[in-house]
Backbone:
């Protein structure tokens, strides 16, 4: 039987929205006390992986201050996960080997989640070295990093994350590097200890075609720009991406294209699917503890659109204007439609609010 309990914490408004917008980049905010249901994390995974707290209790030279700080971050992360999936039970935990520098992250929620998505890359392309691919491995959704396809002794692709989902449980094992036969047993163990049953796919959404505009702002669909040298390559990527995205969401209608400006300096890829989906996930880290004004990776919210942003590392007491948040991706979901913007090139990333406006335009035209 799955074990859950309830802890008191802060609302997502304090932990995410207020903490990630420009108005409060340090994550401050009193928040509203709520009762957050949590899953009990397995004390160990496999034969060698222990929770950071368990390891710290048993190691004579353990950095217990570090372990306690990591536990506090995981508690906040756990509340974020719970809120993101509708206030269901959740868990976030870090596991270590004997060397505390070798870690993996486990998170789980009592809710379904879609499989991983990553843009298509031709594995035979030399530029694919180190690029992440989403692939199904033994029925699980995994992210793998391409090895060198040109090497005389081509190494096997390395798994960095794997996940499994059912109607009432999703488990992720992430930020770990290993071969599938090393990582998947850890996912199996976590799934069993958390009471997982038969895995299921994300349900099918809507079939109505999604219409993407020929232009957004000052950018145009790549296919209309005769100066774009890699247009044929993009067409292949778009076709593969749409097939993958539709498959992840049970065969829902999907679309994708890339927009570029006339000078080919600015670009982004926009994709959409006729399905709701959970919001983007950013693992919590306490910037203040690290002496920083804001975490390196954070979330900025503009109305109904959320963007993942990279901040410059600014010390506490520094000027907020020096953070220069650069958008990594943006998304909006609801009413059976999700739209993303990513692969952002040029200076567009420095204006996440404008990107959010572009995304809203496409969303509202199709919802």
Residues:
């Amino acid at each position: 039987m799955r074990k859950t309990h309830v802890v008191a914490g802060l609302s997502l408004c304090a932990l995410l929205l207020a903490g990630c917008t420009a108005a409060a980049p340090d994550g401050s905010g009193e928040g509203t006390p709520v009762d957050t249901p949590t899953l009990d994390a397995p004390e160990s995974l496999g034969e060698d992986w222990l929770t950071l707290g368990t390891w710290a209790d048993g190691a004579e030279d353990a950095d217990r201050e570090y372990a306690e700080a990591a536990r506090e971050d995981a508690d906040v992360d756990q509340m974020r996960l719970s809120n993101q999936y509708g206030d269901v039970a959740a868990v976030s935990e870090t596991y270590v080997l004997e060397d505390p520098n070798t870690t993996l992250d486990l998170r789980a929620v009592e809710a379904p989640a879609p499989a991983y998505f990553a843009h298509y890359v031709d594995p035979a392309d030399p530029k694919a070295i180190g690029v992440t691919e989403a692939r199904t491995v033994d029925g699980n959704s995994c992210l793998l990093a391409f090895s060198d396809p040109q090497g005389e002794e081509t190494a096997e692709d390395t798994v960095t994350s794997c996940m499994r989902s059912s109607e009432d449980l999703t488990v992720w094992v992430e930020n770990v590097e290993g071969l599938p036969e090393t990582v998947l047993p850890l996912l199996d163990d976590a799934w069993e200890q958390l009471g997982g049953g038969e895995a299921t796919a994300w349900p099918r959404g809507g079939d109505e075609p999604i219409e993407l505009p020929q232009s957004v702002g000052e950018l145009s669909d790549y296919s209309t720009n005769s100066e774009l040298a890699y247009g044929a390559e993009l067409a292949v990527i778009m076709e593969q991406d749409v097939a993958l995205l539709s498959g992840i969401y049970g065969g829902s209608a999907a679309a994708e294209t890339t927009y570029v400006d006339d000078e080919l300096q600015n670009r982004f890829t926009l994709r959409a699917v006729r399905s709701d989906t959970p919001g983007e996930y950013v693992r919590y880290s306490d910037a203040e503890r690290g002496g920083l004004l804001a975490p390196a990776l954070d979330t900025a919210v503009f109305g109904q659109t959320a963007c993942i942003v990279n901040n410059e590392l600014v010390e506490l007491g520094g000027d907020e204007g020096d953070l220069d948040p650069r958008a990594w991706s943006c998304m909006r979901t609801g009413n059976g439609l999700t739209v993303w913007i990513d692969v952002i090139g040029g200076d567009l990333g420095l204006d996440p609010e404008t990107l959010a406006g572009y995304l809203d335009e496409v969303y509202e035209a199709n919802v």
